[in-house]
Design goal:
Helices cover 0% and strands 47% of the residues. The protein contains no helices and 12 strands. Strands 1-6-9-12 form a 4-stranded parallel β-sheet, with no helix packed on it. It has a 3-stranded parallel β-sheet with strand order 2-7-10, with no helix packed on it.
């Protein structure tokens, strides 16, 4: 999970061949979350920005990049990649996405952004 004010960009190199196996109900392989002040809050430090009405608005940003490897989900309501919040960004390049249980999903987006390039998806159920 990427938290707060810091811009952290984890990069998984293709030559390392990372494999993520989120197991069980509600598991997540990779998560970028930027939704302060909501019921699904997952950050604790934020940026202030001036919006059009000259009042301050709370904004947080989460960036995650995965280059190579695989994500296999196995569990009800499990997600391979989950972008939650307006400033949540996930970039997947050369990643294998697999779901092996009913009710598991390769990706989920709640106001966020996921960019997938050159991927392979397999559904085993």
């Amino acid at each position: 999970m990427i938290l707060g004010l810091w811009k952290i960009t984890p990069v998984l190199k293709p030559q390392i061949k990372r494999t993520l196996l989120p197991m069980g109900k509600n598991a997540v392989g990779v998560l970028a979350c930027s939704s302060p002040g909501e019921s699904r809050t997952c950050v604790d430090a934020v940026d202030d920005e001036v919006c059009d009405s000259n009042s301050y608005e709370v904004i947080s940003r989460a960036d995650l990049k995965m280059n190579g490897g695989s994500i296999t989900t196995n569990g009800i309501n499990s997600y391979g990649a989950y972008a939650n919040g307006k400033k949540a960004y996930i970039n997947l390049d050369y990643v294998v996405l697999e779901t092996v249980a009913d009710g598991s999903y390769a990706v989920a987006i709640r106001q966020g952004n996921i960019d997938i390039k050159k991927f392979y998806y397999n559904k085993w159920h």
